Amino acid sequence: MSTLSPDARSIVAAAREAALAHLARLEAAESLLVAAHVTGSAVLADYYPGRSDLDLLVEVSRTPTEADLDVINTAHQGLGLSVQATYLPAGGLTSTPDAAGDGPWVKEGELHTDERCFQLNPVTWLELARYSVTVHGEAPTPTVDVPAAAEFCRTNLREYWAPLLDQAEALIEGREPDEPAVPEPVIWLAFGPPRLLHTIRTGEVISKTEAGNTAAAEWPDLAEPLLELVAARAGTPIAVTVAHGRAVVESGRRVLAEV
């Protein structure tokens, strides 16, 4: 099991610049910002400027007021649309996800204040402890529970990914292999289940690209379409077809069969 020391962690310059630009936009809410930590693709060597989201966990000094929420919402528009962030009470990240407290969160430019953010889970805490990069304030010392992370992954596979696989299978049933498919959902479905399987097996968090490569290595009969989807995620022009969709569904079924 690999655990990077804080000094060994890094993010590409474009991701750091995007994070600092976002924090600058938050300065309009005076004295709100305490600390900010980058997670996700930017710390897992899988960040593609202009296409990847930037994931942040932000510690704040107070329960955001209406004025604070206006600043947060504005910060996530325009250039901030690609920033996905959760705003939590300062110090909450040193505890467990359940005890971290609640706060607003923003995904795809939409501010949420009336439901708990999905990112407050044991897998995010693994990522926070082992791979995150602090770009403002003090680095947290989160409580990590590897068995809880594995169980979270199993539940997520059953409750979220299995229905998506059923839907995908129904959509491609009876279609010819060379018929075009919508790339984004195929790529999304390709890498999620293998990522979770890797965490269940190892207690580590890997990127979407690494998950695709790992699945291709484990299942050689699916390697060609899976590796083409890895290339498509990186920006290579790939004609995504029903054949890719079938490989993705089969890969997902194999993951579910194991867990």
TrEMBL record:
It comes from the Bacteria. This is Nucleotidyltransferase. It comes from Actinoalloteichus fjordicus.
